[in-house]
Amino acid sequence: AKLITYPSTHNISIYFNMLKPNGVLKNKAIRIALNEAINQENLLKFVYKEEGILAPSAVSPNYKSVKIATQGMQTYHQRADKKEIKKLLNGLVLRVCTMERFMFLWKGIEYQLQQYGVTLKYQIITSEKGIYSQLLTNRQKPKEWDILTWGNDDWSSNNPWTVFFNYRTSDVWSTIDKDDVMQGYIQKYFELKYNSPEFIAMVKKIIKRAYDEAYMLFVPSPNIVLAVNKEVDYTPSSVLLMPLWKAKITPYHWSVRRGHYPEYRKISVLPRDDTKK
Fold this sequence. Notes:
The structure is a single chain. The protein has helices at residues 28-37, 40-47, 64-69, 82-89, 103-114, 128-135, 161-164, 180-189, 197-213, and strands spanning 2-6, 11-16, 52-53, 93-99, 119-125, 147-152, 221-222, 224-228, 232-233, 248-249. The chain is α/β, with parallel strands linked by helices. Strands 2-6-4-5 form a 4-stranded mixed β-sheet. It has a two-stranded antiparallel ribbon with strand order 1-8. Strand 4 (93-99), helix 5 and strand 5 form a beta-alpha-beta unit. The longest helix has 17 residues, at 197-213. Residues 272-277 have low confidence and may be disordered.
């Protein structure tokens, strides 16, 4: 096999539960400090294995509008005062609800937060349905978790609206208590022509508002990473909808090969090195 990677508009949404009665994450200073404690550069290097991109917001900068809107924006850690962070976070205990597939990321986050005296307690869920049952009923009946992780994948739209639903307090996807300014921004956003200058300006306002209020825990956005039979030539899309009909195979693919697989084809090859006959 070979690995094929491609820049993606997928996001990992990490929610702060501001609806939890007496929850510590109602405190904006705590939310900011948690974001400042996250060293995205180290997560990208040691956890993502460089398969992603730094993201100063909860939206992938691989969206055209988001790339423009976040130009020059720092991640929280780049501006942080470590002594002040520890004063705010030392002794904090947080309940984390996450799908099992994101534990690779949480182990990296946990290591970083431990440096500031934060303890994490996990509720690990194996299915997306289980995550939905926690998230989508939280507005109706707030849950005990403080943080929840969901894979907010972009299926086909190349539009960051799925992340912006997280900020719309009239929506079950949101864990924000109240923000009339943000609601006005999002309402206007859905009325604007896609990728127009006015649209991009509103994207910037929404992202800046979410950044200033630290509405979510911001982590790098992942690439699409696929293991592919090395006798297949395939370029994935940046979204979850896979154009598998565009895949091509060499004469050595198992489905069409005649005879034994040649020994020289078994050695490691560079991706797309399908020219050797």
